[in-house]
Amino acid sequence: MHTQLTINGENHDLEADERTTLLDALRQHLRLTGTKKGCDHGQCGACTVIVNGRRINSCLTLACMHDGDEIVTIEGIGTATDLSVLQQAFLSADGFQCGYCTPGQICSATAMLEEVKAGWPSHVSDRLDGAPELSDEEIGERMSGNLCRCACYPNIVAAIRAAAGSAA
Asked: Rounded to an integer, what distance in angstroms lies between the CA atom of residue 12 and that of residue 4?
């Protein structure tokens, strides 16, 4: 099946079986290996990418469902010589240990910060209008779909808070 994907601002023509997940299309067909396969069941968040501004688990969706969509992977968030604010915050706060979950964490946090700017409440938000305060509880709730087996959660929260503060 032919699918046109726009990934990190570049067009990609994909010829793949219609059963190919977006994750497998990224990693195996397009060689964008920054997005990781963790559980392959949508439970860990290692495969998080941003599609049309919303974060999704790429292991739970088919590539053909995203024909024409704008997809951002970790490779599109920053480069080794030009890190995003969030990537720099992860480094400064030591928000990783083994690093396996880090691409998914950064993609998820990038989209999450945009959700906060847009005023989207979460389950624990203390208000339903305007941008909520990014407390530890708020960040934890919003990032709950991204697991870290090394338990770097305090440092991840600190990195997100720092990035949110410097982006303000």
From this structure: 6
Nearest to 112 by CA among 102, 100, 103, 121: 121
Residue with tokens 């396969």: 37
Q: How far is residue 17's CA from residue 160's CA, in Å, rounded to a whole number?
A: 38
Residue 45 and residue 104 in contact, taking contact as beta carbons nearer than 8 Å: yes
Percent of the chain whose predicted confidence (pLDDT) is above 70: 99
Structural domains of the chain ordered from first start: 2-76 (3.10.20.30), 85-167 (1.10.150.120)
Q: What is the dihedral of CA 70, 73, 74, 75, to 10 degrees?
A: -80
Task: Look at residue 57 and tell me whether its pLDDT is greater than 80.
Answer: yes
Q: What is the pTM of this model?
A: 0.94
Helix then strand then coil, in percent of the chain rounded to 5, is: 40, 15, 45
User: Which residues contact residue 154 at a Cβ distance below 8 angstroms, ignoring those fewer than 6 apart?
Assistant: none
